[in-house]
Design brief:
The chain is about 55% helix and about 20% strand. The protein contains 12 helices and 11 strands. About 35% of the residues are buried.
Amino acid sequence: MSDSRSLNRSMFWRVLRRSVFANRGRLVVILLALGAGAAITAALLNLQVDAKRRITTDFSSFGPNVIIVPRESDAGLSSVATLPETIFDGLNLGSPLEGAQASLYLVAEASSASDPQKPIRLVVAGKRSLRPNKGIAAPSSESQRYDDNQHCFAGHRLASRMHIRVSDEVVLRNGDREEPCGIVQIWLRGDAEDDQILPTLGTAQRLAGLPGRVSLIQLTLRGTPQEMDSYIAGLRQRFPDAEVRPLHQFTQAQARIYDRISGILTATVAVVLILTALCVMAAMTNVAMERKNDVGLMKAIGGSVRRVLRLFLAEAALLGLAGGLIGAAIGIVISMGLGKAVFGVAAQPRLIVYPISVALTIIVAILAAYPLRRLVHIRPASVFRGEE
């Protein structure tokens, strides 16, 4: 019994091999169609997976998308409401929290050490970051120096008004309180910070007489809208005395753009797979015309309908596997170039895309073998008489 099964299995693969390579021209056409479809599918799917990471990264560069502020009814320790710094201390980096920054704002006077008689009234913004923070932190090249309480940053417009440069010393005053700081960097950001001076949070707290207090906390979240909403809900439960406000213009725009890109790429993949199936189906129609005599002979010598059907499905799956393996590898390489053209950075190959693309190509090849169904109903006698 086992010898019979082994013989049947050997015969099955021998017939399959000969049928696949019977017409090399047709074989090349089918493999080209399946390979091209797999390449485009893999390229678009890889871009779709990588687009989410690119979009969240690009949006996070615009700054925070969630802020924690005092409730309007809370007056804190001064006429301006503040938050306890312990809220900031309770934050931990990890998905979806990518970065955080606590700030304390106050209006004070600043004068350069070389010309103390000409003070300028300005906004002092004390900062403390939870690293790593790519969106709203001070420049990384100055991170270590910025931790020193005696150093601060100055906006470009402020530096022009005060005629100060890097390494100059500035004295900050608020009433009878006074704090010196050395300028470590002058930056141009194109926003309100160009008119501000940014010391460390501790310096601003001493200057304002508000130890352990902050004006607001800025958070940079990355992830799906559901992940961010869940994290925000958790913050509201942990800190009921503070108000957690998502900046919807960033989070909603991020989700909307990704949904549109994802929808377009998914629709394009569907169209490509349909066109691939039609091309393979046209080739399979010719195969059906060529195989009538072969099928008639197999059925005449005792081949069952199920075995004939298995033979053609195996042939289609084998072609789909070969075309998918080659095309998907090429498609992932293509997606890297497309990612560089669209996002400015090559798309990273995603391993999950490869088996999905190969599986889709095999399914398309099997479905495209639909014209071969007519061979199952061929009658051997009719074929030998030339009636079919």
